[in-house]
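ugh finaly. both done.
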Amino acid sequence: MKATHSLMTEHEDINLMFDIVGQVYRQLETSGDIERDHLDAITEYLKGFVDKFHQPGISMM
């Protein structure tokens, strides 16, 4: 897989997660409540993404 394709896929994944977080936020605004499982799933995804693609001590700058 080309690096650009991989980067585009990662970008799509991040955008999808932002959409999901936005939906959860709107649910919280409307009902004042959200399902704990949704927050747990978002947190686990973000932890996995960061662990996989952003290793400590390695800077992209």
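ok and the 2nd:
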Amino acid sequence: MIRHSCGLLAALFLASAASAQTMPLQQFVERGNKLEGLGPLALLHQGEIKELQTELTAAVNKLREERLRAQKVGKKPTYCPPAGSNLKLNPQQLLKELRVISAGQPKSATTTDGMRVYLRKHYPCP
């Protein structure tokens, strides 16, 4: 029984992790806008904040993997952060830029697609 429960929990975790990487960009921006509009009351919506953070983390991790894979095979990566640096993202500035990016993307664009555009702009490759 315990083994079955652990397997079920693992499957649910993997399903939620996979779905976190496919949120439409427009939906991400709309949800971020709603939280931003709440001002300080947004802190009462920790579940929503956590979901958006998870989505963003999944997108950045996927793009990091893409970048490292491209470098490994000798291709030019999509973006080139300074060596040894962690990405520092200001939530308000990021949401502002993702609003603009989403306006120019197809409805099928994901948060990962939006972050790819954002990172390409802020960390261009030479």
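summary for the 2nd one i guess: The chain has five helices and no strands.
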